[in-house]
């Protein structure tokens, strides 16, 4: 790496300048302090509302963080692409997509609806993610499934931070009427694999949403997706190439909920947001970016995260097209 850096052969040759530009956008975006915290999970509404953090990690392992980048938060829906990638890696795309589609839903993330095949539209809305959770190592006891997931998250972050927030898990489970309704509706339509224990599946889904990390570590998770499924910090393969590619395709078309089309149009990069206010952006073969600011817009996306993405592509030509 040192030789590469000296020869200016790193993926971002002028790192100093890039870091300066990113820092400027970061400070600029701090001014967008509108938006509300998610209140439907009480614990999520009790975090400091004005936290703002950003981290980048390139596929060469160049890293930089700004703001509250070591503050912990729950992955929430940012877990969805990672769960998808892991199940894809484990059982393959055919078996997985026998239960869930690939189309943007054009609806809110927790909408009770299925596509014309009576499957959830895609793995990145709640319905689809609950089904993907039902496929995760589902022949093993619930404790083993959770272990598998948290160990996999540790592989995605390398030496970074992964924890579990039990109060968010309990709070979410208490207030999950919509996800229960969605799941019963899906069971009625035989979406799940046979012999499913619905409560176990939902518990696993809530537990995955309550896995905790920080911006600094989340950037490495995003960079692993940018790097074809190989963690750039330790060279360990976490998921296969095809699983990684399919994950990015879905993030591109469905990652920002009902704003995905506009995000693809204006920003042109795969991304995923969660109701805790976290967000990842993947620039394939270049870097992963993690953002955290808990104030959300009406669709559930972090206000500052979206503003940052827009300003990023104005400054750097990262848009895919
Ligand atoms: O299922 C839920 O309601 C949440 N635990 C996850 C939702 C989420 O992060 C959606 N994000 N915008």
UniProtKB/TrEMBL annotation:
Keyword Hydrolase found: yes
Example of a GO MF term: glutaminase activity
Superkingdom: Eukaryota
Transmembrane segments: none
GO BP annotations listed: glutamine metabolic process
Reactions mediated catalytically: L-glutamine + H2O = L-glutamate + NH4(+)
EC category: hydrolase
Keywords assigned by UniProt, alphabetized: ANK repeat, Hydrolase, Repeat
EC number: 3.5.1.2
Protein family: Belongs to the glutaminase family.
Name this polypeptide is given: glutaminase
Residues of the full protein shown: 157 to 477 of 600
